[in-house]
Amino acid sequence: MRYRPLLAILLALCLSVFALPAEAAKAPLTYDQIRNTGKAAICPSVSDDARGRIEVPKGGSLKLTDVCFQPVQIEVEEEKRNGEKEFIKAKNIMISAATLGPIKAEVTPKDGGLELKVVDGITFQPTTGQLPRRELVPFLFSVKDLVATAQGSAIDPSTDFEGEFLVPGYHTSTFLDARGRGSNTGYDTAVGLQAAKDDFATNRKVDEVSRGKLSLRIARVDPSTGEMGGSFVSIQQSSTEQGALEPRTVRVQGLFYARLAPES
């Protein structure tokens, strides 16, 4: 009998928690709730049962906003002793700073299918992968100037985009190494004539620009909110330190999110 008051208090607390309005549970997080938690690097998600369809108007376009690419796994291609090549899983040591977004994109009908173009936003981030033997592989994770195409006339859970994007240089043209060498500024060589013979590649700084490929699979579409989510796989080159190193092939797998921009 003496435990009845305690049970009554516990029951009241439980009822008060379950009685919270849904709006309060879905309220956006504040800056203090996000700071130093890593939540800023997590893309929003779409409900697993969202299996709708969003039509792309003929002669028009769909404006996408808050587009987000969140890397989940990084792999670096290596050659085995028998000459075969395989991708080795690498640890993303910059996981809280590697997510791309917010990005603005546009989907338009083209040649009987769809074309996705990245228009603006944070489209690249310097990232580093660490191999099991502690080797670091720096690369610029990018979707800059992405142009991808897909079949169909609408975006639904069976839509698969494939295309190419630009990978800018990991270092800008004004970057100087420890010896003051750069592609547009600094010294041409740091150790005189010997450099022209022994360290030509190291002294001859070049702006590293390459192309990458990306496959984007839409898995969930919610027409009521205009949200869509899925996964992506991109393949690009690693940094060459302005021509001093051989490029490595990097494969990035992760999550994708976007939503329709509100009509203005």
Overview of this structure, please?
The chain is mostly beta strands. The chain has a domain at 43-171 and 208-260: Beta Barrel (Porin), CATH 2.40.160.30. It is built from 5 helices and 13 strands. It has helices spanning 4-18, 22-25, 31-34, 193-198, 200-203, and strands at 54-55, 62-79, 85-92, 100-110, 113-121, 124-130, 136-142, 144-151, 154-155, 160-167, 210-222, 227-237, 249-260. The strands form 2 sheets. The protein has an 8-stranded antiparallel barrel. Strand 2 (62-79) and strand 3 (85-92) form a beta hairpin. The longest helix is centred in the first third of the chain and has 15 residues, at 4-18.
**CATH C-level label of the domain at 43-171 and 208-260:** Mainly Beta
By DSSP (H or I, 4+ residues per run), the number of helices equals: 5
Strand content: 35-45%
Mean pLDDT: 82
Separation of termini? 64 Å
Helix content: 10-25%
Radius of gyration: 24 Å
Q: Record the strand order, biggest sheet.
A: 2-4-5-8-10-11-12-13
Order of helices and strands: HHHEEEEEEEEEEHHEEE
- The name of the CATH topology of the domain at 43-171 and 208-260 is Porin
Q: Show unreliable segments.
A: 17-25
- Give a count of the beta strands, DSSP E runs of length 2 or more: 13
Largest sheet: 8 strands, antiparallel, barrel
CATH-defined superfamily of the domain at 43-171 and 208-260: Photosystem II, cytochrome c-550 precursor
